[in-house]
Amino acid sequence: MDYQSILEKIRADVTPLFGQGKVATYIPALASADPYDFAMSLQLVNGESYHIGSCEKTFSIQSISKVFMYEMALSLFEASLIGRVNVEPSGNPFNSLIQLEYEKGIPRNPFINPGAIVIADMLTSHFGNNAYDTILHYFQNCSNNFSIDIDTEIASSELESGYRNYALANLMKSFGNIKNPIDDVLHTYFNACSIRANTVCLARSVLHLANQGIDPITNNTLLCGEHSKRINALMLTCGHYDASGEFAYKIGLPGKSGVGGGIVAIVPDIMSIAVYSPALNHHGNSLIGTKALELFTRYSGHTIF
Amino acid sequence: MDYQSILEKIRADVTPLFGQGKVATYIPALASADPYDFAMSLQLVNGESYHIGSCEKTFSIQSISKVFMYEMALSLFEASLIGRVNVEPSGNPFNSLIQLEYEKGIPRNPFINPGAIVIADMLTSHFGNNAYDTILHYFQNCSNNFSIDIDTEIASSELESGYRNYALANLMKSFGNIKNPIDDVLHTYFNACSIRANTVCLARSVLHLANQGIDPITNNTLLCGEHSKRINALMLTCGHYDASGEFAYKIGLPGKSGVGGGIVAIVPDIMSIAVYSPALNHHGNSLIGTKALELFTRYSGHTIF
Amino acid sequence: MDYQSILEKIRADVTPLFGQGKVATYIPALASADPYDFAMSLQLVNGESYHIGSCEKTFSIQSISKVFMYEMALSLFEASLIGRVNVEPSGNPFNSLIQLEYEKGIPRNPFINPGAIVIADMLTSHFGNNAYDTILHYFQNCSNNFSIDIDTEIASSELESGYRNYALANLMKSFGNIKNPIDDVLHTYFNACSIRANTVCLARSVLHLANQGIDPITNNTLLCGEHSKRINALMLTCGHYDASGEFAYKIGLPGKSGVGGGIVAIVPDIMSIAVYSPALNHHGNSLIGTKALELFTRYSGHTIF
Amino acid sequence: MDYQSILEKIRADVTPLFGQGKVATYIPALASADPYDFAMSLQLVNGESYHIGSCEKTFSIQSISKVFMYEMALSLFEASLIGRVNVEPSGNPFNSLIQLEYEKGIPRNPFINPGAIVIADMLTSHFGNNAYDTILHYFQNCSNNFSIDIDTEIASSELESGYRNYALANLMKSFGNIKNPIDDVLHTYFNACSIRANTVCLARSVLHLANQGIDPITNNTLLCGEHSKRINALMLTCGHYDASGEFAYKIGLPGKSGVGGGIVAIVPDIMSIAVYSPALNHHGNSLIGTKALELFTRYSGHTIF
């Protein structure tokens, strides 16, 4: 089956699932997403790309931004990351404080909220209070698309209602693992989460992770090869909160989800993938997006295992 | 042995312990306390009082204020307290978030930080942003001493460095158990903790708890009899964080400690007690104060059991 | 109101509650209890006694035996108890392993299952595999009733289905806090739990705790005065699992419950109380028994606070 | 660099590390291992093999047996596994009871002790009390070596001192997630853990996982292709207890360790690897074995990411 046919077959297969799951409602801008939206994009290393659905429609990438923030941190601070954020799966929901208290303010990994907040703190120390601009620019670079922007309305809503994230940041600050003022750190963090993109652009943005850190189309080196592999490893073990194991087990590709309904995934040496469907399962991952990726690995035979 | 002799014997007995324990250092105003200070005051229901040591020297009452805040809340909101704060010992340190997350933002009791923060929230809702003034006034009333004041320097320091308390408040707000803005609630809370008093005044301030809620000297009713008993019960089971059991086991009197180094205790129908010594044991309770109360129960034979 | 009238009023008041709560069903012998049974006995220090309901009907005392086991341990091993079992409220259900793992196999107190299992281990070391006989004899002594016996059918059922208790014992043994073979220790433990008594006898069995350790009727010294007070303190802070705080708050008397439906309580210097009603609330304490004691403190005015 | 040169370079590189780490000491047979032993074997899908060190010396495979037990369970019971054991990383040590109690007796994954004990229970139900014989035979089949045997001395020692595993099994039985008598289940489990093998044989035993479930040398189908991928996914996310994330991050190959000092790893489509060095790091994984695999991926460039 060629890739376009696979995408069409996936769309047909997931159609009966529309109506299941729940759109994130904790802020108005996310709550207004259309649960019947669906898009999927394949970006091959060889330059080809395949799309289906509303692939031009932008949405909030949310936690997918954690991948780009951690890429920047790996490049800038590699050694300093030791002791500030670990690389272990958490076995807990994305915003739990329990493990964080037992482990004295050192987050399990950079893909759960407290880990990404520590990374936001490090980037804020390095780039100042406009660190989010640098993160946006890095994402634009990865996507080779300089029109991408931050949805400031979403960023403001997050700041107003993000009590759990304030709790995480304050708990870590009480352990000395946040160096900047809480408000500055969360300003960086929430703005990065509020980048809007469509699946075309999201698939393109992680293509370098399928190619040892080098964008195969522009030949820009975004990341060294070793770091690229480590990002993939981390996406595999920690990319989907407390459903990461199941994602690896059923899908077998490195990936990262966001509560906006997007998921990115990598087939090393071959392609990157983005899928969008805003209704979430109870782990906070796109229900139909997860299913679509499972079908993709079945129909294409692509897996890292 | 008469009470004054008991106080003298206690002072002699605890003298070798000076130098043990550690003064609280998380804010400068507490760190400067003199670890060799010691004071103890007995205020009898019959009006007699006995004192030893620096009983005129004021210190920060800190968590002892939780007793007065909860007294006010019991009188004002009794029924509404259900579902907002429980009355069980926590089995955990005073500022732990773990249990609070498992129990969905409902604190175990009003004498650990999250519980007192909920009470501060309720009082803030009722009295507005100057709720701490009303708390101060209630404490003055209980003490029959209207010169007592809040140490605003301490209150400011707490506000600046109280990350753990901000974490607790934000976590509870994420569960909907804080109704006012975090800053307002902690303003109330930290100001109440920053009341300064000496042992003379502290012993007097809880005398009504030895007399069914009525100040036996002024005959003012501060609390109904049933509430007075409940405060005592709560002090016995929850008054000393995760050392409450040991305090009940060894001392056998309702009591409440603060990290400023003060402890109050009640001998029902007979007297109230205040002791001060700022060096703390690893549970955050006054090391010498705890020992002094243990000696007091041994020499006086007073216990509720 | 005289005591007999109080008992009658209590029975009238609790009658509408029959049908609420659930009889323990984990072993057949407990499951067959009649949820409409009710008995209450007051045994005064002055020798008077008052009873109501089926006060001659025996039932399994279950966890109430933990009081007698700990009395024996305090008398025999006082110093050796340090480091083997603490005296803090647990804040957790009676059979939780979580805290026990975090705290490296040292139970929070002797009135939750793991604590009583450690005590059973110490008594087994001292008295050998028939330790339960010595425990029974101590209970007979306390009750001044030598016809009391162990229900061996219940003991066998417990041994067969007590997986959670086996888990607790094995976890503690992995930390080195159980010295004898697991089966021997649980043999002691389950036999002690399977003592049968009625409320007349149960009230009598704890009378010495209202009188500084001395049975006021026989003048036998069962416990030294200091130990007697410590048992009372422990019953107050830890006597009702994770509802101990509420019991202290609402009832204000030292007490201990068992899943067989019995509760004992102490009014120091005045009397001991036993109540029986087998339907349990969700904490595992007798629902109507708890209510009856709350009414008793209200009508009699007796409380330690 | 050819594979033999890589092995030699690895041996040279790890030589300075001998003396670090600690041999497992909880049973005598493991404690007697020589911490200076080292062996590494590569078994290519094309039939070639490369070895270094004491590759003929057998050792206890311990938790590596969990891979084979789960392979059998996947083939036999696939659908029935749902609800009995999950496929998520645990974020906790291999023998923790905490998560197991919170999650009501359902283990996080089959590669931590409680998960493997559930699998042992299922195999015991299916094959009876000699289930371990069938497991041994499956392992012999995978290795194409029928002289491999169980070290019964080790199995007996485990049974005698395995209190933590008894605690896990009893806790799960209290939740109804163990169907057979505890002793039968642990007999199966400990015997399977006590298989002895050398690295030549261990590398061969997992070769089918590098080849979609088919032994490429004998052409025997041991597992269907999809199951083979799932085993690899599980080894990647859960193969090294609470250091699984770090193993994926640094090494990037599916693998499974045992406290006997062995580790197996898979390079899909290319080869399987076994390494042996009995001194363990604080996670319970072979310290030098882990380092050797990290060097192997660096020198060979093999990784799944």
Describe the structure.
The structure is a homotetramer of 305-residue chains. Chain A is an alpha+beta fold. Chain A has two domains: 165 residues, Beta-lactamase (3-Layer(aba) Sandwich); 129 residues, 3-Layer(aba) Sandwich (Beta-lactamase), CATH 3.40.710. Chain A is 45% helix and 12% strand. Chain A has 13 helices and ten strands. In chain A, the strands form three sheets. A five-stranded antiparallel beta sheet of chain A has the order 3-2-9-8-7, sandwiched between helices. In chain A, strands 4-6-5 form a three-stranded antiparallel beta sheet. The first copy, chain A, has a two-stranded antiparallel sheet with strand order 1-10. In chain A, a hairpin with a 3-residue loop joins strand 8 and strand 9. In chain A, helix 1 packs across helix 13 and helix 6 packs across helix 10. The longest helix of chain A is centred in the middle third of the chain and has 15 residues. Chain A is globular and about 55 Å long. The two termini of chain A are 21 Å apart. The model of chain A has no long low-confidence stretch (mean pLDDT 95). The interface between A and D is medium-sized, with 33 and 33 residues.
